[in-house]
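User: Quick sanity check before I run a bigger batch. Here is a single chain. Can you write out its predicted 3D structure?
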Amino acid sequence: MRIYKVGGAVRDRLLGKPVTDIDWVVVGATTEEMLAKGFRPVGLDFPVFLHPKSGEEYALARTERKSGRGYGGFTFHASPEVTLEEDLIRRDLTINAMAEDDQQNLTDPYHGQRDLEARLLRHVSPAFAEDPLRVLRVARFAARYAALGFTVAPKTLELMRQLSESGELQALTAERSWKEISRALMEDQPQVFIEVLRACGALKELMPEVDALFGVPQPQAHHPEIDTGAHTLSVLEQAARHKQPLTVRWACLLHDLGKGLTPEEEWPRHIAHEFKGLKLIKAVNERFKAPKDCQELALLVGEYHTHSHRALELKPSTLLELLQSFDVYRRPQRFEEFIAACEMDARGRKGLEQRSYPQADYLRGAATAARSVAVQPLLEKGFKGPELGEAIKRERLKALKAYKETASF
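Assistant: Done. Predicted structure follows.
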């Protein structure tokens, strides 16, 4: 029995990056031997075990063979005869196909270290094209390591293009796709994830609504970058730069989908794009079974982001309707995330990345004013039921009028 550290732990150590998760592969062992040493089995499709003390994953060396469509369409074979090199060749990228023993002696049969130095994301073997999930994984790695100068090798990008055109991406489950998408959006340069997907034709297959934004012009006075797709990438880049959570980043990606529906003869204006985009946002949400908080924020940002940009001009009654839509009284955090997404939208414009966004503090102040209305005095006056609701609304409107008159923005 020989045990090796494999994959990301080896890659990140060589890159000088922090190693968080460690995966191990065991060569020359049987399931019975692992159980005898106290390892606990957890693998459903192939033998994976948890270490009795550390809880880290140890997998028996295995080979795999394509036997069906999609990410799950593989037959695995694990036995003591499977070599380390045979196990490594089934991995996606050369930089993930390295192993080291307890003395840090490197096993690198597919030149992963060379590709690390060349800053290349390169496939290990032609079998790369058998797993459609690898299109998303490579795009995610491109986003993770873009700051270090990594790019996708041309032949690997071509295999990703072939996978995109094969229809295999449609066999991916919503859960697997969302796992990769959500992780990619939380990388330092999530816009690169979208760029790589678009370069290999996968964006058109997975998110045609986002792909449709490229080549669609916007008014240059408001959007110096002009192209709606380029703007979306910039908004996503700003969201990462400002360390926004996943909910905000997802909303940033989808906020302008309605502009993809504007007839060419109406370009560069996009009348009512906020409302038109809601059905597209809903479709993307459902396709990937995004978490409820991500779905809700994306729809709200899509519908109301221009309200935020015009916040200082809104009538108190419109401002109250906006606050009611977000239920700022019981869910203040969601309104904060809305404001953040709108600020990223405003900053995601060429040359305007550093411009201040006074609307953010103005909206926060409005929410505070509306929340300051006390309910108890109204109850003491005898209001109840629907009448109480109307009385509260009147008092909140009064508070917002006073706020608007005194706010200095």
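Residues 385-406 form the longest helix (22 residues).

User: Great, the batch can go ahead then.
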